Amino acid sequence: MRVPYDTMKGEFCRVLTKKGLRKEKAELSARLFADASRDGVYTHGLNRFVKFMKSVDNGTVDLQAEASCAEYYGFFERWDGHRGPGNLNAYRCTERAIELAKQYKIGVIGLRNTNHWMRPGNYGLMAVDNDCIGIFFTNTVPNMPPWGGKDAKLGNNPVVFAAPNGDTPMLVDVAMSMFSYGKLEAYKREGKLLPVEGGFNSKQELTKDPSEILETHESLPIGYWKGSGISLALDLIASTLSGGRTSKMVGELPAETELSQTFIVIDINQFPDRDEILRKISDTLEDLKLAEPVKEGVPVHFPGEHMKQIREENMKLGVPVDEHYWQNVLDM
Amino acid sequence: MRVPYDTMKGEFCRVLTKKGLRKEKAELSARLFADASRDGVYTHGLNRFVKFMKSVDNGTVDLQAEASCAEYYGFFERWDGHRGPGNLNAYRCTERAIELAKQYKIGVIGLRNTNHWMRPGNYGLMAVDNDCIGIFFTNTVPNMPPWGGKDAKLGNNPVVFAAPNGDTPMLVDVAMSMFSYGKLEAYKREGKLLPVEGGFNSKQELTKDPSEILETHESLPIGYWKGSGISLALDLIASTLSGGRTSKMVGELPAETELSQTFIVIDINQFPDRDEILRKISDTLEDLKLAEPVKEGVPVHFPGEHMKQIREENMKLGVPVDEHYWQNVLDM
C-alpha cells in the first residue's frame, strides 16, 4: 500500500496538533517523519511515529519543550533539549550549527537532555543543502555488549556523515551495531537470515539468525572490537561536549531519554578553496563508482546515491506504508 | 630478544642524526618510534623505522621539512606539512591543537602534505596527558575496495580516540580495514588464520586466510558497507579541513605521501563541569569491565587498558625486537 507524501505529512501534523503541539512545530515534526519514509528510511518515518506518540503519552518526551542554548563559546555551544521532541531538538541544533559554521567555518554543538532524533539523515541533508559537511552522532540507551562481554553496556550510537555533491549528496548513516533491533525484527518477520553475522546465539557463536540475536540481545559491534571501541568513544565525546548523560547514565533511567548528541558542521562556502573542495568530493565519489564490481552488473555506489531515485519514486507513486502502522495513525 | 628502551631510542637517534636531522628533532622522532615499541605497537615502532628511513632515502619524506601554519581561524588552523617526517608533523599539530583547546575549549587542525604518522596512539596519549580528549584521523593511499567493488579506491584511514582516565587512559586506535596489511603479513608469517574474516579470496568469498587476502588485496572494511562509508567520510573531512589531497589524489602519486590529517582536541579543564566529565569517563570505563565475560576468566577490558602493563614490562625487561629489523638499525 502506498500513501501520497502530503497525506502522510498531513496525518502526522493532525495527530501532533491534536496532542497540543502548535501548528508551526507540528508541521516541521510531521515533515521530518514524512521525509524519512519518503526517502526510504521507513523504520524512522511512519513506523516510528506510533512509538514516538506513545513516548509523548507516557511522559518520556515533553512535546512542548524546546531546546535552548545553555552555554555560548563562540563556534561551540552547549544546548539543553529539556526532554523535548528529539527530531525538533536535533533540527534546531543543526540549524544553529550551520549558522555557527557560516560565521566560524566550523560550528559545534553539544546537545544534552534530548530524545531519539528519529532519522539522522534529515540533519545531514540540511547540512548539504547549505553546502556544508555534517558530522552528527548520538548516544543511546545501552543496547550492545562491549567486545568480550555479554551484557549490553554500550549504545549503538548512530553517526551521520554528509557531504554536498550536487543533487546526489553523500550520506553515511550508520549505527555502531551491525544491525539495529528494528532491522533484526524486520529480517525475522520476513523469515530471512542476515546477509552477514549480526550477533551471538546462546552458545556464544556468531550467527546470521535474527531470532537468535533477538533472544540473547547480544548484537555485534561493526568490526567486532573496533566498533566496540568507537561506540565507547562517541558516547564519551557526546556526553563531554554536551555536559549530558553517558549511555551508562541513560541506562539508569526508566526509559531511553536525556540523550547526548553532537552536531559538527563545516561550511565549505567559507573556505578559500571552496570550489576545489567541492570538486575533490565529487571526484572521489565518481571514482568509487569506477571500481570493478564484485557482482557483474551491480555497480558500486556511494552511500546516499540511491536516495534520489527512491524519493522520486515515492513522490510519484506514493510512499509505501505498513498498513498496520498507517491504520494506527489514522485512528489517532 | 629484548633491547633496553634507552638503547633503542639511542640507536634511532644516532641513525636520524647521521642522516642530518638536528639533535632536538632526532631525539623527539626517536622517542616517538621507541614509545610505539615500548607500548607494544611493534608494527609502528622498530618494525616501521627501517621503512621510514627508506622513504627518507628515496625522497618521499623530506627529513628537514617542518610543518607550518598556513591559515589561522582562531580555534581552527590549517597546517602544511611540507612532506616532512609524519611523526614530527603530527606531534607538532597535536601540540598546537592542545594549545588551541586550552584557549577555545576545542582546537581543530587540518594538516596537509604530510607523511605516515607512524603510531597515532602517541598523539592520543599527548592529549590525555593534558586532560584532553583527542580525536585524530588520517587518510592513506587507496588500499581497500569500497563495499561491492574489487579495486582499492578507499584508504583504511586510521582513527584515534583518546580520553583521560588517571594512569589508564582510554585509547582507541583503529583503521577502517578489519586488518592492516602489516597484521595480515604477521598472521601469514606465523602460519595463523585471522580470528575473524578479513577480506576476500579470488572467488570473492570472505576468508580468514591472510595469504588469500594478500593475493587479492581485497581487505574488508570494518562492518562491511558501514566501514566503507565511514572511511570515505573521514577522507573527505580530512582533505576538506586541511585543503590537502584526498586518498584518490594520494593514489595518483608515485608513493604514499602528501596525506591529509585532522587533529581535534577537547580540553576538559576548560569546561565548567570538568570534574563531572572526568568522573563520567571513569564510571563508563569501570562499568564496561563489569560486563559478564563471554569467556569465563577473561574479563572485558576497555581499549588501552592493557597498555600500562605492557609498557611496565617492556621498561623492566627490555622492549621485544624482531632481530632482523634490529640488526638493520644497528647496521645503519
Neighbour order of strands in the largest sheet of chain A: 2-3-4-10-5-6-7
Number of domains of chain A: 3
Q: What best-fitting shape of chain A do the alpha-carbon axes yield?
A: globular
Oligomer: homodimer
The helix-and-strand class of chain A reads alpha+beta
- Count of helical stretches of chain A: 12
Uncertain parts of chain A: none
- Sheet bearing the most strands of chain A, described? 7 strands, mixed
Which band does the percent of strand residues of chain A land in? Answer: 15-25%
Specify which chain pair forms the largest interface.
A-B, 77 and 77 residues
What is the chain-wise order of helices and strands of chain A? EHHHEEHEHEEEHEEHHHEHHEH
Terminus-to-terminus distance of chain A: 19 Å
For the record, the CATH architecture of the largest domain in chain A stands as 2-Layer Sandwich
How much is the average pLDDT of chain A? Answer: 96
CATH topology of the largest domain in chain A: Ribosomal Protein S8, Chain: A, domain 1
Helix content of chain A: 40-55%
Radius of gyration of chain A: 20 Å
CATH superfamily placement of the largest domain in chain A: Malate/L-lactate/L-sulpholactate dehydrogenase, NADPH binding domain
